[in-house]
Amino acid sequence: MTLESKIPSGPIEQKWEKSRFDMKLVNPANRRKYSIIIVGSGLAGAAAAASLGQQGYQVHCFSFHDSPRRAHSIAAQGGINAAKNYRNDGDSIFRLFYDTVKGGDFRSREANVYRLAQISVNIIDQCVAQGVPFAREYGGLLDTRSFGGVQVSRTFYARGQTGQQLLLGAYQALEEQIAAGSVQMHTRSEMLDLVLVNGKARGIVTRDLVTGAIEGHAADVVVLATGGYSNVFFLSTNAMASNCSAIWRAHRRGALFGNPCFTQIHPTCIPQTGDYQSKLTLMSESLRNDGRVWVPKQKGDHRKPGEIPESERDYYLERRYPSFGNLVPRDVASRAAKEVCDEGRGVGPGGQGVYLDFADAIRRMGVELVKEKYGNLFEIYEEITGEDAYKVPMRIYPAPHYTMGGLWVDYQLMTTIPGLFAAGEANFSDHGANRLGASALMQGLADGYFILPYTVPNYIASNTLEKVDTSRPEFAAVRDEIDKRVAKLVSIRGKRTVDSIHRELGKTMWQNCGMSRSAESLQCALAKIPNLRQEFWNNVNIVGTGEELNQSLEKAGRVADFLEFAELMCIDALERRESCGGHFRVESQTPEGEARRDDADFSYVAAWEWKGEGQPWEVHKEPLTFEYVHLAQRSYK
Amino acid sequence: MNLTVKIWRQQSAAAQGQFVSYQVKDITPDMSFLEMLDVLNEDLTGKGEPPVAFENDCREGICGSCGFLINGVAHGGRRGTTVCQLSMRFFKDGDSLVLEPWRARAFPVLRDLLVDRSAFDRIIQAGGFISAPTGGAPDSNAILVPKDSAETAFDAAACIGCGACVAACPNAAAMLFTSAKITHLNSLPQGQPQRHQRSLDMVAAMDAELFGSCTNHGECEAVCPKKIPLEFIGRMNRDLLSATLHRHRS
Questions:
Q1: Containing H/E element for A542?
Q2: Per the CB < 8 Å rule, is B130 touching A161?
């Protein structure tokens, strides 16, 4: 198999325009003859469903939630980047492109990132037209702020609920299309597998989460917008149900998986408090704009933060990175927090935390302004910890948050299976080895509003798509496999709950394939995972049947897939013997302990091919070249 | 701490439901309410009994999935908090709690504490949007929005669609939910062209779903996890009246 990225020729600023012109169109009268399945209703899925519905295609959108508005995009707090340069502070499309390539530690495609930066300006226009209530200045113009890892103020925001407001905008556009009959919404319907006919993606098999019915759905195109896989760590900032099953099933059917080891650990989350904990809560990193991160200089200093004098505090980010200070990119901030905690200077119960202190900000701006900017975050913090962050510093610790890896896609966002597209966090593109703050919302909406609505019709217009319905044997065969899998799961009746096995997997992954990784730790995880998988299939206990609303069964299917995926993630991490972005190999660091990239050997996208049950994966490498952004070791000093 | 939890168990929409009492042991104050239910469910699964079904996802109070009544109060009665954000430190050893699903004709129970809230989506379908097909938008700063309009719109747009307002209302009215979306969109310059039609259509959809009417109890505001104010119902009624007066000739 050869990987064809299909990057258009020509100067970078003209590539997208050129490719839009080169793409084939579908006559408006013919569009309703074609059907498109979109799995997921977050920013990418809802935006694509609404936009393709508006164009006149028959769209079927699937969500396992009770409503498309529940998708996890809703939880993004901080903001969305756009190269509008409304601040006159030196921003431009080229600078957003440059920052994103550099922030991603040179492991993304230049052409994709440039397109993302170009589209960013259209996204804000679109969202404002839909009525997204972005923050405003007194004159009525849009407000912006600067956000983790950049030096211009290009982040548009809606208090601390930007994801919610953008998702509601896309959701409302989607509901309008549902009312118009151009989109059919399938809620409480979980995709369990992909169906191929003659090598092309032609449908999916779902489980109705209320009745348990296993159903086939046929279409001309399938789009997966099903989010990321941070829950492989069990504890993450992702929602409880976020999972990798849709992309994993597609991978097993032939879609290559790109850079699975690229995961992002977010520096500002509320520290874990106990073993029963079900998830971690993010505190927006916008807090780092005004909060100062510190730990005591002395190991094991258990005094209250207010009793530690200025001279005995180590503002370690400001000390190590004077030019970026508290605003260094996420991977750098997370690793630095881990280091000071490993040195025994962590704070709070268990020593797994650092302070994020607003005392200076309150002195400078006054408590009212701090409240206006961050009030809801301080409230969330107090609800969870019982502490008032206006009086004592917040305690934070890094947590798994986002996954840059995902299904490998070409410039058109199509996977290696013809007719199968992947969008948003579900694909691997654009963020390289580390995503900058406020770029996830941008990418999800770019894919959904402005890329798929061109590339999906181009696929339809360029291919002869014979009529396919669910009576084909290919659908029956997949349905049969799913029936057997469900029957097997409910018949095991072992001793362990799904959660207990998931928790164990998560712990293994966090310890061995988390913030820092070594050949040794990865080998250790690779030895454990198959045993855990065996434990699951022999000893899991799922009460109830497949023919009813059964939340344990839903979870079990997702965990079964995580147990397979985790292995590939570790293999990818083992193979990539360099440190880059969120992927830190202890064997590859500078004498000062900073990540050391190895461009000579690892400047490529690792795209993994499934070769069958029990067979080793085959890796395909897409080389990355940098014509516009000069390759350099990142430095935030 | 140890608690007695009486939970509504109902196997399916068609089945008869009943309360069942459970003892939950060794709960610590830093657990969340849903983590307490996780502990119960792990225990039930170990005994081969079906775990309690309840809706939840983000567990940080923004997705709107979760919600049930604790001792008759939606989301447990702590101001501005969803049940997933509710901490066990507000409970004490020996407490006895009764958990029930939202009760409303428009929200049929699907299983245990989990109900069907699709009626909310259908209200949005009736007019809870600004028609702005992808691609045709003007530059975002071409539309000036006064800061206070943007703030009002945001206050209303903060609604998470959890359904607590309906559950708390003696009339099972969905007026707080509907008025929040109408206020969000009608407060903005972009929302003006569809203002009247939106108000008429969303209120009609709300009635068609068999939600009741507001009689100013204010229970909805009291339980709303996003503190959506009752005042928005007044705004909706004014908008509805104005829309009725401005109806275009057909």
A1: none
A2: no
When scoring B134, B154, B183, B185 by the number of chain A Cβ atoms within 10 A, the one with the most, hence best to mutate, is: B134
> Please, where are the H alpha helices in B134-174?
147-157, 164-168
What pLDDT does A42 receive?
A: 98
Q: Are A260 and A294 in contact (CB under 8 A)?
A: no
A334-364 pLDDT per residue, tens: 999 999 999 999 999 889 999 999 999 999 9
* Residue B15 contacts A, CB cutoff 8 Å: no
Nearest CA in chain A to B66: A70
Domain ranges for chain B, please list them: 3-111, 118-245
Q: Tell which residue, A335, A373, A333, A338, has the closest CA to residue A78.
A: A373
| Higher pLDDT pick, B88 / A273 | B88
CA distance A508 to A506: 5
Instruction: Report the residue of chain A nearest B10, measured CA to CA.
Output: A549
As a whole number of Å, the CA-based R_g of chain A is 24
Q: Is the pLDDT at B249 greater than 80, yes or no?
A: no
How confident is the model over A243-278, as pLDDT tens digits? Answer: 999 999 999 999 999 999 999 999 999 999 888 999
Asked if the model's pLDDT at residue B250 lies above 70, the reply is no
- At B185-205, the pLDDT tens digits run 999 999 999 999 999 999 999
| Catalytic-residue membership of A395 | no
Whether A175 and B44 lie within 8 Å, measured CB to CB: no
Q: What angle, rounded to 10 degrees, do the helices at B147-157 and A162-180 form?
A: 70
Q: Does the pLDDT at position A574 exceed 80?
A: yes
Of B57, B110, B135, the CB nearest to A65: B57
- Note the CATH number of domain A473-613: 1.20.58.100
The domain spans of chain A are 266-400, 473-613
pLDDT at residue A149, as a whole number = 62
Check residue A484 and give its pLDDT. Answer: 98
Q: Which of B170, B172, B162 is nearest to B228 (CA)?
A: B162
| DSSP-derived pairing of the beta strands A35-39 and A221-224 | parallel
Cα distances from A477 to residues A474, A480, A485, B160, in angstroms, run 5, 5, 13, 40
Inter-chain contact A173–B132, Cβ cutoff 8 Å?
Answer: yes
Quote the Cα angle for B190-B192-B194, to 5°. 105
Task: With H, G, I as helix, E, B as strand and everything else as coil, classify residue A583.
Answer: strand
In chain A, the residue whose alpha carbon lies closest to the alpha carbon of B187 is A131
pTM value > 0.95? yes
Q: Residue type at B210? A: L
C-beta atoms of B157 and A133 within 8 A? yes
Q: What percent of chain A has pLDDT over 70?
A: 100
Domains B3-111 and B118-245 share a fold: no
CATH 3.90.700.10 fits A266-400, yes or no: yes
CATH classification number, B118-245, choose in 1.10.1740.10, 3.40.50.300, 1.10.1060.10, 2.60.40.1930: 1.10.1060.10
Reported ipTM exceeds the 0.90 cut: yes
Name the CATH superfamily for B3-111. Answer: Beta-grasp domain (3.10.20.30)
The SS3 call for residue A84 is coil
Residue A592 pLDDT exceeds 90: no
C-alpha A315/C-alpha A294 separation (Å) is 4
B170 touches chain A (CB under 8 A): no
Question: Which is the catalytic residue, given A70, A249, A330, A517?
Answer: A330
For testing the chain B interface, which of A123, A128, A451 should be mutated: the one with the most B CBs within 10 Å?
Answer: A128
Helix (H) or strand (E) holding A453: helix A452-462
Residue B130 with chain A: CB contacts under 8 Å = 129-131, 172
Tell me how far apart the alpha carbons of residues B236 and B217 are, in angstroms, rounded to a whole number.
Answer: 16
CB nearest to A142's CB, from B89, B140, B190: B140
Partner-chain contact B32 A140, CB within 8 Å: no
